């Protein structure tokens, strides 16, 4: 499942090593495809950014979620997710779509400061390399009801869509933890 941003305006951007990337879409994975200290979480949202230089490079910001308090970002998607869940399309043959209108992304922009970064690949075929992965160091919370609402449009067989955890294969994962950063895992 994904949310794609269309239109003339720029939704957002990130800069990594002097390279600029524009925000294009959100994708959800259940359970999380990344682990911290070996722990997998119920949900990972991936904010996909494409290189402004046209090189095909991607920068993805991954946010991990655990079950807990209400998340304001998912609260605003409630009506559209219910509409998608009611649309009984033939999964795998056709797409169900719902225009979201204005979506406030501010709640996803809560700064944690700390993050993990590594060069990896896409987690779905063709598993293209040269992706700048940035996994936020603070695990966010959402209610079980919000997770169920997010998964409701998908048939049961498609609700677990995460790639299995992969070995590092020589990749170096760097942890950035600026002063006064928030992390939510034991060091």
UniProtKB/TrEMBL annotation:
The lineage of its organism: Eukaryota, Viridiplantae, Streptophyta, Embryophyta, Tracheophyta. It comes from the Eukaryota. One of its GO terms (biological process) is one-carbon metabolic process. One of its GO terms (molecular function) is carbonate dehydratase activity. Residues 1-177 form the Alpha-carbonic anhydrase domain. This is Alpha-carbonic anhydrase domain-containing protein.
